[in-house]
Amino acid sequence: MQAHEIDYQIFGEEMQYVEIELDPQEIVVAEAGSFMMMDNGIQMETIFGDGSEQQGSGLFGKLLSAGKRVLTGESLFMTAYINQNYGKSKVSFAAPYPGKIVAIDLAQFGGRFICQKSSFLCAAKGVSVGIEFSKKLGRGLFGGEGFIMEKLEGDGMAFVHSGGTLAKRELAAGEILKVDTGCIVGFTKDVDYDIEFIGGIKNTFFGGEGMFFATLRGPGTVYVQSLPFSRLADRIIASAPRAGGSSREEGSILGGLGNLLDGDNSF
């Protein structure tokens, strides 16, 4: 299915949103919970899966498309936004946490892009959001993303979200980039992805960076994020109040005195 041709503009710095302009009867599909705002005349419709197989696929095709999303930890349903106006209309989708929204033109990437689970934000109608199984046991067991990643296929625009600051690397044939497993946002179809043991007793047990990192071998394009959501969540949990109402002491060696001086107290 040929994807709808959509125009877009990304706004913001740390907390971004993408504004998509739809011609009459054009459609964009998005993850539940990503909607921000839209013009009057755009109609919302809940669909199974990504909507790429809605026409002529039958019940089995729809269930198969939706079932793939369950394996990646996503909802059975997505939301389609249809422009029912006679002129152009706009709909916007917001990033779930601080970071950058990446616009992926699948036509320029050979029709396929592999990304981490939960990074997909929205896409033009016709883009297929499926699953990418790992063919290597080590990658599946220790790769941070498990056996399954998300696979975007088609010839249209798709948008994925990354945490923190985004780095884009163009890898030449045979060039290797080593990355923390949680920092991978996505990569093009020709990039070979594997897992490598860090090695060394001190590195393994005292390095604080885990036992494995990802190796990405070119040719292709790789997107890397500086702040994976899991790392952000760990920091928040570590700073959360402990049992009895106490929290990690922000005043370091000053202890409770530091808390009195930091301005975060309520009486």
Query: H/E series, N to C?
Result: EEEEEHEEEEEEHEEEEEEHEEHH
Poorly predicted ranges:
137-146, 202-208, 260-267
**DSSP helix fraction:** 10-25%
Give the end-to-end Cα distance, rounded to a whole number of Å. Answer: 61 Å
| 3D shape | globular
Radius of gyration: 21 Å
Which class do the helix and strand fractions yield?
A: alpha+beta
Mean pLDDT: 77
Number of strands: 19
Largest sheet: 6 strands, antiparallel
Q: What distinguishing features does this structure have?
A:
alpha+beta; single chain; 40% strand; six-stranded antiparallel sheet; 5 helices; globular; 267 residues
Question: Can you give a write-up of this model?
Answer:
- The protein has 267 residues and is of the alpha+beta class.
- It has five helices and 19 strands.
- The strands form four sheets. The chain has a six-stranded antiparallel sheet. Strands 11-12-9-16-19-14 form a six-stranded antiparallel sheet.
- A hairpin with a 5-residue loop joins strand 1 (7-11) and strand 2 (17-22).
- The protein is globular.
- The model is unreliable at 137-146, 202-208 and 260-267 (pLDDT under 50).
How are the secondary structure elements laid out?
Elements: E1 7-11, E2 17-22, E3 27-30, E4 35-38, E5 42-48, H1 58-71, E6 77-83, E7 89-94, E8 99-105, E9 112-115, E10 120-124, E11 128-133, H2 137-142, E12 148-153, E13 157-163, E14 166-171, E15 176-179, E16 184-188, E17 192-197, H3 201-206, E18 212-217, E19 220-225, H4 229-239, H5 256-261
Antiparallel strand pairs: 1-2, 2-7, 3-6, 3-10, 4-7, 5-6, 8-13, 9-12, 9-16, 10-13, 11-12, 14-19, 15-18, 16-19, 17-18
